Amino acid sequence: MTTYPLGARRAARSLAALAALVMFVTGLVTLSPGARASAAATPACLAGHVNATSSLSSRPGGTTAQLVFSSTASPSCLWSVNATGYQWLSASGVAIGPVIYQLPRTLSARWTPLYFGFQAVARLSTMAGVQCTTKSATSVRVGAPGVTTPYVVALARAVAVCVGGTTAWSSVTTALPTTPRCRSAQLAMSLGGTNGAAGTTYHALIFRNASSSACVVTGIPTVHPLRSLAIGDYLGPRARPDSVAGFGYPVRLVPGAKASVAFGVATTGNWSAATCAPARAVAVSVTVSGARGMIPLAFSTCTKLVSTSIRGVVAGVNGL
């Protein structure tokens, strides 16, 4: 065993300690922005995170305003059924009556992620003309804890709202509608743009809702290189699933809307020919949320090891 003088050992320990300190400080500088980003809470839905539409329906003695909120946040914002409040507004923006909550009101209400394209529906019912004093409302102000700027939804026409008398009453019911997963017949699959990074080329695989009704894609698709334009003619192993934060969340596709994934193809020259056994693929078989299809794509792939990867679904067409 080699021995060193005491002074040399002390110097080595000092250098090691200095190197560890530099690495620690460098790690703080490098990781702090990411740590701050990951620690940031998911925003509450409303201003800046949803689009809203309204419709009105009359019934004996009153009117129901239906407000539909569609999430535009990516990947999600938080919606609370019980802690979201609604208030009628006059044409001049003056509040009519109190803030209305769905009963029972619970400030510690559950918060539900509202993923891209998903909807929350609120139905505000008011009595009018039945032993009550009314005022005219032309919009509804919607607010929730953590939201500094309430969302204002315009109504198609003025609504008579009770503000006094023996039936001064309004109520609200809310729901988070479910949407079925996309079926094979609903999805049109195609190839999108390409990006390259560090020996890997990423291809965007695009899913378009070609049907007349909304459906959902979610998760990490199963992608398999194909030797020919036949879905079952697999070439080598399937793509490795990449679990990356912010990818693979449910995306609600209205008719014509698109979602995508990033399909990574590593350069087969990264391995020896014997280890990789490269071959030419002409397409990929894709299964997403149970829907299955094929996308033509020519590339070189390893047949003895995994040289392709696939990320989770995201909204939009670039996959990244």
Which helices and strands, and how do they pair?
Elements: H1 6-39, E1 50-59, E2 62-71, E3 76-80, E4 85-89, E5 95-100, E6 111-115, E7 119-127, E8 132-143, E9 151-165, E10 170-175, E11 187-197, E12 200-209, E13 215-217, E14 222-226, E15 240-241, E16 251-253, E17 258-266, H2 273-276, E18 278-288, E19 291-302, E20 308-310, E21 314-315
**Helix-strand makeup class:** mainly beta
Task: Supply the CATH architecture of the largest domain.
Answer: Sandwich
Strand runs, count? 21
Main pleated sheet: 6 strands, mixed
Q: Which regions contain 5 or more consecutive residues with pLDDT less than 50? A: 1-40
Helix content: 10-25%
Number of helices: 2
H/E element sequence: HEEEEEEEEEEEEEEEEEHEEEE
Just give the CATH class of the largest domain.
Mainly Beta
In short:
The chain has helices at residues 6-39, 273-276; strands at residues 50-59, 62-71, 76-80, 85-89, 95-100, 111-115, 119-127, 132-143, 151-165, 170-175, 187-197, 200-209, 215-217, 222-226, 240-241, 251-253, 258-266, 278-288, 291-302, 308-310, 314-315.
Structure description:
The radius of gyration is 28 Å and the shape is elongated. The protein is built from two helices and 21 strands. Helix content is 12%, strand content 48%. Strands 11, 12, 15, 17, 20 and 21 form a six-stranded mixed beta sheet that branches. It has a four-stranded antiparallel beta sheet with strand order 1-2-7-10, with no helix packed on it. Strand 18 and strand 19 (291-302) form a beta hairpin. It has two domains: 50-175, Immunoglobulin-like, CATH 2.60.40; 184-315, Immunoglobulin-like, CATH 2.60.40. The two termini are 53 Å apart. By secondary structure, it is mainly beta. The protein has helices spanning 6-39, 273-276; strands at residues 50-59, 62-71, 76-80, 85-89, 95-100, 111-115, 119-127, 132-143, 151-165, 170-175, 187-197, 200-209, 215-217, 222-226, 240-241, 251-253, 258-266, 278-288, 291-302, 308-310, 314-315.
